[in-house]
Design goal:
The chain is mostly helical and 233 residues long. The protein has 2 domains: 7-25 and 143-217, Endonuclease Iii, domain 2; 31-137, Orthogonal Bundle (Endonuclease III, domain 1), CATH 1.10.340. Helix content is 53%, strand content 0%. It contains 12 helices and no strands. The radius of gyration is 19 Å and the shape is elongated. The relative contact order is 0.14. Mean pLDDT is 91; it is low at 1-5 and 217-233.
């Protein structure tokens, strides 16, 4: 089946197939364990340069010790560092966590804000982290662009930019606001399980027939991906 030249139509097919492969809301699909926006914000800060699985291992003890922003804001740095040591870069993460919590207490009455501009004003909170909180915790428009999202969106021909902010803008222009967050998470899940950076499994990918880069992952011979009927424009 030839690749679709209509980018908007191709995005619709990609989104539909990813939804079938990874059903559920952004909140349900989020791999970081959390019970509220504060816990998600903490977990996302910890996830920098660390796997979600590792972060999830430290969260129970961390939240038992610091159940809310006020507790975290008053944390002893050395104690906090020990609790999060296994996530890597634990000293800078500890500073960011206490600074973030202090910012929440001093400027937002201990409540995680719902505006991106306010979120990124907190220590350790960049645009990607803010978009995670917005889309997952609040169901608001936000499209986090991590390494998986950037890599897959380029392979799929949805952006040509290697800059996360520009790639985010390109993706947002192609999708409805309600799809932003969940589309990002589905790309992440697909990047972890199928379109793996060092060994992409194009033969098992539901997007292979609409992906300009599909043959890059074929180890030998013709593409063996199962073709799924693509609706006409």
């Amino acid at each position: 089946m030839p690749l679709r030249s209509d980018l908007a139509g191709r995005v619709s097919v990609i989104s539909s197939r990813l939804e079938e492969a990874y059903p559920g809301s952004a909140s349900a699909l989020c791999a970081l364990h959390h019970a509220n926006p504060y816990e998600l914000l903490v977990a996302t800060i910890l996830s920098a340069q660390c796997t979600d699985e590792r972060v999830n291992l430290v969260l129970p003890a961390l939240f038992a010790r610091y159940p809310g922003p006020a507790d975290l804001a008053a944390a002893e740095e050395s104690e906090l560092e020990e609790l999060i040591r296994s996530t890597g870069f634990f000293r800078s993460k500890a500073r960011n966590l206490t600074g973030m919590a202090q910012g929440l207490m001093e400027r937002f009455d201990g409540v995680v804000p719902r505006r991106r501009e306010e979120l990124v004003s907190l220590p350790g909170v960049g645009r990607k982290t803010a978009n995670v909180v917005l889309s997952v915790a609040y169901g608001a428009p936000g499209l986090p662009v991590d390494t998986h999202v950037l890599r897959l969106s380029k392979l799929l021909g949805l952006t040509t930019s290697g800059d996360p902010v520009k790639a985010e803008a390109d993706l947002c222009a192609l999708l409805e606001e309600k799809e932003w967050g969940v589309f990002s998470i589905r790309l992440i899940l697909h990047g972890r399980s199928v379109c793996i950076a060092r060994r992409p499994r194009c033969d098992a990918c539901v997007l292979a027939d609409v992906c300009p880069s599909a043959f890059l992952g074929a180890p030998r011979g013709p593409l063996r991906a199962k073709k799924v009927a693509t609706p006409s424009s």
